[in-house]
Recover the amino acids of this structure.
């Protein structure tokens, strides 16, 4: 699979089957569309292309939007790549792009750039300036420019009953299990391990302080989670706190992971932190000793969750 952009000289010359969308999260509904796309491409001996956008259109069109994404663009590419696509076409979403008329979008991107012969779109898809065009317009353009159009039916959409918005809301409320079910994989964040204040180490629970780019990425609700990561090709398990460290009256939010039976220097390492379950809300304790007693209890519960997952 290859990632291409409008300025890329390696844009394929082969006719394609294209689907269009932001695909934030690449959840089970998105995966259903992409399976249909790759099958259609195989049946018609065409290449499969996902046309996606970055940044999220709402970030450009609604300047006061505080939307956070389920995936960074790098994560989205990684997840899409595993679904058997030939190409991902990443269109930078700008005000200039948003002002393209529907016809300009179809002619410039779908026809001239991607050589579309078959276009699959989600139910009630709108496109072009002010999202003025719909499925009927796209079919008319298909007649003009010689490509076929297939719309994912409302019934198919309802059968999946999932959306990126529902997943965001689940993560904001700390409902990891619902988010996992809707995504079809465990939600994860990526960050670099940086030096923290050493609170965990003093209590014999040393932590990796994860610095995450929060400009785009949605961070789940503050609290304590069961997590895993990969280190030198091996899965490591642990628990992670997201929050303000109220017991120590810290002055900023941190993301700190404690890995079980692990004693390696992680400073500077780039880690994916995978959310397996949620244990509890963040709490303020009367003393460091009280917090340590709770952490011991949390560790026991986390290990039980991990054992059940691996059973």
């Amino acid at each position: 699979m290859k990632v291409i952009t409008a300025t890329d000289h390696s844009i394929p010359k082969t006719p394609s089957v294209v689907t269009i969308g932001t695909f934030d999260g690449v959840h089970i509904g998105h995966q259903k569309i992409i399976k249909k796309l790759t099958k259609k491409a195989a049946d018609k001996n065409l290449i499969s292309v996902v046309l996606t956008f970055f940044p999220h259109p709402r970030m450009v069109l609604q300047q006061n939007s505080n939307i956070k994404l389920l995936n960074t663009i790098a994560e989205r590419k990684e997840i899409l790549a595993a679904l058997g696509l030939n190409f991902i076409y990443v269109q930078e979403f700008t005000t200039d792009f948003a002002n393209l008329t529907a016809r300009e979008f179809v002619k410039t991107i779908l026809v001239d750039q991607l050589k579309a012969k078959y276009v699959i779109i989600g139910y009630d898809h709108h496109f072009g300036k002010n999202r003025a065009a719909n499925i009927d317009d796209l079919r008319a353009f298909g007649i003009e420019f010689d490509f076929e159009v297939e719309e994912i039916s409302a019934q198919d959409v309802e059968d999946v009953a999932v959306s990126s918005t529902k997943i965001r809301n689940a993560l904001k409320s700390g409902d990891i299990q619902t988010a996992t079910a809707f995504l079809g994989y465990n939600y994860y964040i990526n960050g670099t391990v940086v030096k923290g204040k050493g609170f965990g180490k003093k209590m014999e629970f040393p932590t990796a302080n994860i610095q995450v780019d929060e400009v785009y990425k949605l961070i789940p609700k503050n609290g304590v989670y069961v997590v895993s990561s990969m280190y030198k090709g091996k899965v490591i398990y642990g628990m992670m706190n997201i929050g303000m460290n109220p017991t120590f009256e810290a002055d900023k939010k941190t993301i700190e992971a404690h890995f079980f039976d692990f004693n390696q220097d992680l400073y500077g390492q780039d880690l994916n932190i995978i959310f397996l379950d949620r244990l509890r809300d963040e709490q303020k304790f009367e003393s460091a000793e009280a917090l340590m007693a709770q952490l011991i209890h949390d560790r026991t519960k986390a290990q039980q969750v991990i054992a059940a997952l691996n059973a």
Summary: The mean pLDDT is 90. The longest strand covers residues 270-280.
